[in-house]
Structures are given as structure tokens and as C-alpha cells.
Give the backbone structure.
Amino acid sequence: MHTTQRQISRALAAGALSVALLSAGSAGAFATEAKPTPSPTMSAKPKPSPSPTTTASISARANTTSVKTGDSVTVTGRTSGLKVGWPLVLQHQKGGKWVPLKATAKVKNGSSYSLTTTLSNPGTEHLRVAAVGKKVYSPTVTVKVS
């Protein structure tokens, strides 16, 4: 029986792959065994619980509670726990979901912000301010559009 160059190459590749897989598996086994097991004398440091001052919040207030179609509304407020420059976006409720509007701002010195948008759909608009990248929202502000 005569072996070809291709068969030899396949056998070498399969062998090299087997060695690599076995050595990786044993290295992982050694790595897991190297961890020290906790003893009664070792104590883990308790994780600090977040204090009320470290949780972020946003307040919101509209400059008016009713506008005509096409008029603008300005929502202002203050933030707590968000750094100066943090991006904010104004959202409105549409079909049960919160949808971002084109109004964006950043937290200013003094933790204040101001967002202005034009409301063009008649009815009741539910607005809120959201911190981009965080699950922090202001209370809902209601504006009637006629």
C-alpha cells in the first residue's frame, strides 16, 4: 500500500490538532486547580450597598401643560447621580412604547438640562427624559396638544 503526500499531511494535521486540544484542556485543568480554596480564616470583604445618594435620578417639568399643534414645549429639570456632559434624550409614549424624539441635551454644570421639541400630533402627549445608556428616567410629564 502506497501513502500519498496528501494522506501524510492530513495525518500530521490531525495529530497536531489533537495535541493542541489536549494541552489546552490540561492547561485549563491546571488553571482551575491553582485557585486557593477559601479557609475559615479567609474572609471576603462585603460589597458596599449603593447609598441613596449614588442612585441616579432625573426631574422634569414642562414650561406649559397645553399647546397648539406645531408649537414647541421646553422640558427642564435637574439630575442627580449623572456626570456633567451625560447625554439625555426626550421620549414620548407611542403605542405603549417609549420612542425617542429628536430633542437631545447634555447635563450642564449644576446638574441642569433643557430640552425643546415641537409637538405636531393633536391629543395628549406623555413625555419623559431618559439618560442615554442608563435605565434612568424622569417622571412622566403630560401636555395636551390641540
